Amino acid sequence: MILFYTSLLVMLGLVRFAINRRVASLEKRYARTAAEADKLLFGEAVQKQGNSSQKLDTCETAKRQFLLGQLVQKRDALEGKHNAWAQRAEKFSGWIAGVRAWKGRKLPYTMGVLDVSTVMYLIDRYGLQDRIEVQNLLRTLTALISSQ
User: Fold this and answer.
1) Continuous segment of H or E residues that includes residue 57
2) Are 56 and 48 in contact (CB under 8 A)?
3) Which residues of the chain are modeled with pLDDT < 70?
4) CA angle 15, 19, 22 (to 5 degrees)
5) Is the pTM of this model over 0.70?
6) How far is residue 123's CA from residue 94's CA, in Å, rounded to a whole number?
7) Residue 83 belongs to what H/E stretch?
């Protein structure tokens, strides 16, 4: 019973670790993209056309606006993905907490049923029905106990 419960918790912990790594990765990508957008928006001033003219270079301005628009779209998409994965991580952590709460209430019954059904499946799967009989097991156990 403890083996299955521990295995279940380890497996759920590994899945939670993977989900949290995905959230952290998306958060880093979002922060990097937001920093690039801020740098492009508030960074160096737009160059003016020629040495003496006061007009702004329209091509340079259009290019800058286009790049800024692409970065903002990328940032918004990453923000949406990050929020969705963060919600999934929060729900999954709540589900794990619920499974951990089984320990004192449902755990003995649930895991006991899983233990018995797994043992019965393994006996049936590997054809051990003929070798495992209650009378033979009792004789073996009584022989072991009486010899000590």
Assistant:
1) none
2) yes
3) 1-2, 44-56, 104-111, 130-131
4) 140
5) no
6) 36
7) helix 58-100
- Which helix H or strand E contains 44, and what residues bound it? none
Would you say how long the chain is, in residues?
148
- Residue type at 105 in one-letter notation: R
Q: How far is CA 7 from CA 13, 19, 30, 99, 104, in A?
A: 10, 18, 35, 12, 17
User: Token pair of 23, please?
Assistant: 């959230």
User: For 61-86, what is each residue's pLDDT tens digit?
Assistant: 888 889 999 999 999 999 999 999 99
Give yes or no for a contact between 30 and 72, defined as CB atoms under 8 angstroms apart.
Answer: no
Q: Any idea what DSSP says for residue 101? A: G
* Secondary structure E strands in 18-130: none
Structure tokens at 1: 């019973």
- Identify whether the C-beta of residue 73 lies closer than 8 Å to the C-beta of residue 36: no
d(CA 59, CA 65): 10
